[in-house]
Structure formats: C-alpha cells, structure tokens
Known about the structure:
By secondary structure, the protein is α/β, with parallel strands linked by helices. The chain has one domain (about 5-50, about 65-205): Rossmann fold (3-Layer(aba) Sandwich). It is built from 6 helices and 13 strands. The chain has helices at about 10-20, 25-45, 80-90, 140-150, 165-175, 200-205; strands at about 5, 50-55, 60-70, 70-80, 95, 100-105, 110-115, 125-130, 135, 155-160, 180-185, 185-190, 195. Strands 1, 4, 5, 6, 7, 8, 9, 10 and 11 form a 9-stranded mixed sheet that branches. It has a two-stranded antiparallel ribbon with strand order 2-3. Strands 12-13 form a two-stranded antiparallel ribbon. Helix 1 runs antiparallel to helix 2 (about 25-45) and helix 2 (about 25-45) crosses helix 3. The chain is globular and about 60 Å long.
Amino acid sequence: MNKNFFLIEHPIVKRDVTILRDKNTDSENFRAALQRVSNILAVELSKEFKLTKTEVETPLETTQGAKLTHDVILVPVLRAGLGMVNGFLQIIPEAKVGHIGLQRDEETLKPVEYYYKVPKHLESAEVVMLDPMLATGGSASEALKYLKNRGASKLAFACLVAAPEGIEKIKTEHPDVKIFAAAMDRELNTKGYILPGLGDAGDRTFGTL
Length: 209
C-alpha cells in the first residue's frame, strides 16, 4: 500500500464509521459522528505540523511553549467537505478556510469546477483538503492540482472512506500528498461509488436525500 496513505486505527473511529455507514442513521447523528471522526483525523494529521518555540507567562513564571510555525488552511471540497470543517476547527481553531467546488459528470465520472476561493499565502501554509469520499480520485486529484497551481506545496488530504482506486490515483498523480482516512473500502461499483461505502456523504450530512 502507498507509504503516504495513513489509515486511522482507533476504536472511536471504528465505532463512528459504523454509525456513518448505517442507512438508518439520520442527518443529525450522521453530522455528529462525522464531526467526531474529523476531530480525530485533525489530531492525527496535525502530528506532521512544524512547531516554533515561544515564551509564555504562567501565573508563576516564564516558560518555553510552542506555536504552529505555518498558517493552516482548510479547503473542503464542496459540498460534502463542509461537514468536516467544524471538526477540524475545533482542533485547529486558528485555521483559515477556503473552498473548492467540483461536481462529478455522471456520464464521464470526471470533475467539473464551479467554484474556487481560498485564502492568500497558500505557498507558506499547511494546506489540508477535506472530502469525505475518495472514490475514483478524479475530483480529489483535480482539486489538488488547482491548489498546487496556485502555490500550495505543503498539502495533505483527509477523508472518511477511501477506495483502492482513489488511493492509487493520488499516489500516481500526487506522490507528495499524504492521505489520512478513517476507513479503506473494497472497491468501486460500475457507477464509481464506493463499496460498501456509506452512500452520498453530502446528501446524508445535509438531509437532501
């Protein structure tokens, strides 16, 4: 498997992925589980971040502390990626948030851009792309290209569920990007959906089934 693919093996993640998979989970509980998983993904992914020493005044004396060296920019892929933002902001509250809008052409399965807006200074920031599903990898790869073309160099990708096909595509087209996932599933079906998967993450998050 790709050395840049990190599966988060954690009991709480396994429990919550089961809740997310369950077709009977309503939108409220789906969002809550998604946020908890995003918290843990944020903790695991941020282990890669660099720190700078700083001084801090405790009530008793001055001591050495630490702060993040680089700005953090979260970039959810619209719209499903929005469900992961709050979970990441709870762990990295100083992060800025940009957005990329890509929709999949159901005939070709290829992504089409309809929106792009991110904070400045991508080139010096830790950029984390958020998208619950890594299926064919087409949308994720395209979004990563957009970010790189605009200067991003320190990139990571966080998802809930990854298919082998998507992992392989990112490995091939973006070997520098680390993928952090809560689950790795078996395969894609003929329509490009992940099996066993959890359905359409955007619809289930926002109740638009």
